Amino acid sequence: MTWRATALTLFPDMFPGPLGQSLAGRALEQGLWSVEARNLRDHGIGRHRVVDDTPFGGGAGMVMRPDVVSAAIRDVGRAGRPLVYPTPRGRPLRQDDVRRYAAGPGLVLLCGRYEGIDERVLEAEQVEQVSIGDYILSGGEMAALVLLDSCVRLIPGVMGSEASGTEESFSDGLLEYPHYTKPASWEGRDVPDILLSGHHAAIAGWRQTESETATRMRRPDLWAAHLARTGQDTGGPVSLAADPERLH
Question: pLDDT tens digits for 53-72?
Fold first, then answer.
């Protein structure tokens, strides 16, 4: 069954955007997934199709109206698909969320603009609010594309190698190990000898160690979660100065 995405947006021409290229674009052509962009302004108020108004309590900017947004949401056949609103106020998007979304029938993505969307409609429609990072974008479309890309690549048949979806950052809660390719020596920098040894068990062990080291030094939040999940001792902090070559 085709994985279906519907974007509710004021700028439908932004979809599929970059997802019409490369592996996602090929999968789109093959019918492995689909994306429909619906214009929120179709449900706007009056002759000018107004979708926003000034905020109660004062303040700069405009807020998207709940009656307009709810009409657009209710016009979509969700068919079990989660309704997701990308916003800096949401919980951080994690790979576990992406796996859950990708394993389902698809997503309905609500793309905000201006100062945001009236809170009442978010509550009434039980909208999932997720954040792709602690920064501000001009609107929700780019964040929606990021979320779609993370999901589409996990749809069976999209990536060339099934292992590509499991041997990467966050697949087991850790950052991915470093990668190398030809030439074996480049500008005085050599590929680690272990990767040229042909000893698969030793290579797997090296990669695991590198993943753990990178996570511990670069993402202490992920490292702490990994230790809690595996029941390991937290140990002391790792300093980059202690082993500056570990991350190459």
Answer: 999 999 999 999 999 999 99
